[in-house]
Amino acid sequence: MATGIYIDGLNLYYGALRNTPYRWLDLEHFCHLLLPQDQIGTIRYFTAPIYLRHDTNSRSRQSVYLRAIRTTPLVQVHLGHFISAEKWRAIVESNSKPSESFQPRFRPEWLFRFIWADARSRRQGDANLANVVIEQEKGTDVNLAAHLINDCARNLIDRALVISNDSDLSGAIHIARTFVDDIGILNPHTQRTSSHLKKSAKFEIHLRKNTLSRSQFPQTLTESNGKQISRPRVWK
Prior knowledge:
globular, 6-stranded parallel β-sheet, 2 domains, two-stranded antiparallel ribbon, 8 helices, Rossmann fold, 236 residues, 10 strands, alpha/beta
């Protein structure tokens, strides 16, 4: 039985890896531990190059990690993209300390209270607005859905596991099961699995912390061109 595994990279990262010592994750080893009885034919990893104006270090660490997982033969990386746009959005109300709605906080506090009171007295509607930068990842869920359906429709796999808790994938799983019935999900988050995903999937498996700890890359890897890749220092 050939099994395909489809990983929503950002969903996995923010659900199970962020701020943990397990971010240097060997996806191939990880997947073999999740499904030890399966013959895994392909592992597709879907993510987008991080573009955050306030955090260029995350971008460089992600780049190092993508190089690392490309050294494993079964893993195929599929990239989406980030978009950035300016939009007007409501500011969270805080009657006691309105300056805490901003980071860093406004100083001096007394001066900001006057500015805030003036803005509230002249506003239209129920909230004050701020022009903010919205940064969004695009393409990951669409790419995952397209590859899942394509692989199932072309009989490239006999079984599939989707690692995500994004309810937007429920429709793709439902369609893919018309070609390959045995499709399951793994929710990398601590909160409940999306009810839509549970309804669309045939089975669900659960993530154990020791699976993450047992699936770490060695400290240093070597690419096919001979260059070395080292685990980012802050990930230790």
